[in-house]
Amino acid sequence: MPLDTMLFDTHCHLDAAEFDHDRVQVIARAQAAGVKALVIPAVEVANFESVRVLAHSFAQGFYALGIHPMYVERAAPDALAQLREALLQHRADPKLIAVGEIGLDFFIPEIAQGEPRAKQELFYEAQLKLALEFELPVLLHVRRSQDTLLKYLRRHRVRGGIAHAFNGSLQQAQQFVELGFALGIGGAMTFERALQIRRLATELDLSALVLETDAPDISPAWLAKGARNEPHEVLQIAHTLAELRGCSFEEVIKVTAESAWRVCPGLAIAVHSFR
Question: What is the residue extent of each domain of the chain?
Fold first, then answer.
């Protein structure tokens, strides 16, 4: 199967409770839409095993293990040790493709300052070190924290990864790309008022972008407000990106698939399995 038919959702929380009543059907809809890889990142120690098992339940499933910045505050003292143990235990698993979802969140005031912020930064740096130890890319949570994230990435030169739901400046975007990252772009881009994201979607080289949904969150413009997002929506997101850029849908699929494979080499199994 050529790369121009390789549609990837590089970020979806398929283990979320919102999918508990129809998860099998959600996966089937994604498969019917032609999605060849769905990357399911963990957010805390409690769902490490559930994302792993879920990723192994269907051919297109892949996963990442990490502690999300919004879950750091409630993380147990041994959470980082448990993450390292899980990475060690599953290091030979071809479906484990990254450390994630990790990063920093400075949008929520309660965790953007003082001790909570310091703990976020401690966990972020520690997880970058684990990514280096296990030679894995990272899936980054990037919300009003781009410059601080970059500071640590320059200090700990991980093998790149994906800056998920990116909404920084063009200059910041270029700095992530220079450090080996692709930028995740999804439902937010589909809103006409999302001027910053749409500008990035058209001004950056297409090879800097990968497709994602963040399902069940960040629903695209064509869904009702508050409606649950699903991985199959990545198909229409790809069409929207092609329209914005004035290029073909096939080019978007081919280039974003190549980029996802480049920054997350573990996705090679998806490329080769579905050819």
Answer: 3-273
